[in-house]
């Protein structure tokens, strides 16, 4: 076997964003030894970017809220493609998970009587998002990080995992390398939790960081686990569009929650033109009522800017494609106008949206308290991912667990804002708890040296090829993949594009076999990019294939050639797995039926 | 589109040198964009640490024309392009490669600081009542993105290498955030004096100048902590009292 250091833990967690940290904390609390491996430095994971808040029916601001309403909102937002049991557990347990954060030192904004304040967000019936200005994610990850480092876990920063190791049907460890020196490592574990986040880097315009290459999705897929719902990729309606170099950076939905409105180049609030039937009863039909809602009037209905993200993104795209866009190909998001309604408008904006203020000031030279922002859709979140058992978060591979964005089921066809931060707390905890239980019931298994050798050889191949004239550049392949996914598997999809994208992925995979990089193994981004390509290609193919098979429009998936929802396909989930011949298979399976008592909750909350 | 020259430090523990790279820059680009462009065009193995590219994660710290900066928040239009733009790694920590340094010391230091310890919950359901004013007071410290630029510029670390005796501005901010947390009841004053080396800070305020989150590190975090340490350990009346009581 190649020379490499071996680490041994009961539970190994991959990824140190919110879900990974929460899982590691829970596992460590149950007394097992825990290793936490992350691609970046601790505390830099993508959770840090979450802005708006964490959804939980604390009912501090509106006492009509309860878990059932949160559950029903989540199911409606997901167009009933959700795993209902996950949606139930999530809605029931989110309040406790948020309160627990406070006990670990998180400080949320307060109500007048000193309890946790909650704000309005798209698709949530009542003000439900606990928040700290617009930097909730930073508060959460820092709280989990600062609490976690005292719980006795061993942290491995700047490591990439390239393969899951199995013995028979069970996962027994991981193989990877430290990014700093490029040294290989074996991590033996009795159970593994994947918490690697999303896949945004498969697209050109994205709010996601470089880490979001779908590593967990691909590792699980290669190890034989099922992925589901991969066609559902959320395009957040409001990303920055100008300057070009910051295109895609997120502009929080909190801007709209605080009263921000969307206008086209004619100055019209176009969101009033297209309110889906499913939301007609809950949506304001005039500007005045919408404003009152954002200011906490319980009798008012929400403004159409706070409809679900998939819908708002499509409306923006329509305005742009029909020639009513802003100068740089977006639309206008105006929060400055609230100065007409509030005496201290500018001050209010700076206090409630400090990082948005900062971001536009620094990067675009724009003062959002004075002029509108230009915004457009950006790839934001993968609803699809590793299929897990709702209660335990175990995947279809024994001993392999998943939580957070890389797991699937909770959000169905579309995620509501604020539900990802609660997702990672609720299911991070569950994954950690059950991975620890699994570890207690199983023993470690010996690692197969030949498999390590094969994985090492595969990882080293790009370096050995070198950056010669006949070598492919990893940067170029990544760029071509991102362009193809953006153009052909984006917000508006059609059969011919999707099939072309599948072919492009196959061609790029072929070329990726010849990828070569210069330099040595020490902190070599060219080499890292070459190795990440494998994951990107797997998730890209899965998204394109899932999208091609779903011949309907539902939630985040919009098909130009099948613009309507199909009742029949609404009962279908697409499972993606690796076939015996090594090819990707997509299988249509029935969605789990709702039990009568759960169906009743949805009916109760219909109006 | 303008052609610009970037003079970037290339090297590792063994040494290195500045190398010039030319690339096209356009309106609104930031320094990190230029570095990525150079990487993709002509220096595939050039090491740079980054994540969010929007000033929220604090990964891409470096020195641009001699000033500690987040590369993702430094706009090229603000730089003088008539001369090469000089980009080099931060200096207070050991170099790994090119623009990447080993900042692990910071993580070890944080682990040493006594963790958050809340008072007993205010309500029977285990929750607390906190006023917004109390939340606002510590908010400034909690904005910290751990980019370590304040550590980089602090002469106690940068020039005097007191890493064993001094925790640096970042961790005074962290201690202040804990100390002024409305629920926290832990006592960290003795550590501040003895192991954290707060006395070494001679309030030159360099840390405050470079903070990308505009945290008033010296005035709002360090000086109040210094005052508390002085009150506890150097107040003449207390000294006398301690002597009399034989403590």
Distinctive features:
heterodimer; A: 607 residues; alpha/beta; FAD/NAD(P)-binding domain; Flavocytochrome C3, Chain A, domain 1; Methane Monooxygenase Hydroxylase, Chain G, domain 1; 3 domains; 7-stranded mixed sheet; 5-stranded mixed sheet; 35% helix; B: 247 residues; alpha+beta; Ubiquitin-like (UB roll); Fumarate Reductase Iron-sulfur Protein, Chain B, domain 2; 2 domains; two-stranded antiparallel sheet; 10 helices; 7 strands; 16% strand; elongated
How does this model look, in words?
- The complex is a heterodimer of chains A (607) and B (247).
- Chain A is built from 16 helices and 21 strands.
- Chain A is an alpha/beta fold.
- Chain A has three domains: 292 residues, FAD/NAD(P)-binding domain; 141 residues, Succinate dehydrogenase/fumarate reductase flavoprotein, catalytic domain (Flavocytochrome C3, Chain A, domain 1); 106 residues, Up-down Bundle (Methane Monooxygenase Hydroxylase, Chain G, domain 1).
- In chain A, the strands form five sheets. In chain A, strands 1, 2, 6, 7, 8, 9 and 16 form a seven-stranded mixed beta sheet that branches.
- The model of chain A has no long low-confidence stretch (mean pLDDT 95).
- Chain B is α+β, with helices and mostly antiparallel strands and 247 residues long.
- Chain B folds into two domains: 99 residues, Roll (Ubiquitin-like (UB roll)), CATH 3.10.20.30; 135 residues, Alpha-helical ferredoxin (Fumarate Reductase Iron-sulfur Protein, Chain B, domain 2, Orthogonal Bundle).
- Chain B contains ten helices and seven strands.
- Chains A and B meet through helix 3, helix 4, helix 10, helix 13 and helix 15 of A and helix 1, helix 2 and helix 3 of B.
